[in-house]
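Morning F.,

Quick status update on the modeling queue. The single chain you submitted on Monday has been processed. Sequence for confirmation:
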Amino acid sequence: MIWQSADAGNVEESLLAEVFQRKPCLLKTGSGGNIAASYAAVDPEWDFHASTQALHADPVQKNRYLRVVISNVLLTVGSYFKENNMAEMRTPEVQFLEHVYNAILSENTFDIEPGYLPIATFDGLVIDNRLNGTLLFGDGIADGFMEFGDAIALLQWLSRFLRGEKNFVSGGDAG
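Structure tokens below.
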């Protein structure tokens, strides 16, 4: 069943429970989370359409929301590369991700040492020391080095790279 956005608020709770099954859970323990959750009922007064219209009316706020979501995804992928000892690979796109990761952690601003030789590239975007102090993503007022679509394209490239890397790493032990 595919619901249209106009129907999303008019779905019976029993139908939702049938479509979106949940894992069995333990009995409530009385923890603070359970106490808070009991007060966190769905608010029928909340108007999703008005909220989205407010974002369209305020492009700076919309930009902030998108930047937070996309930055969190990039941080997650960058952390995965670090945890699995892949962040130091000399692949230009992986080095690009590393600089993007550091810029996000530096309040959306590049911090590149003088004399850095560019090996970090992706799809025509080159990171070099001239970017020091430049915004990674625009803030709705000033332009940034990347657009959100560039970040999505980078994530897609990294996804393909990781699928190929799995075969590369595990393929050397056959006798």
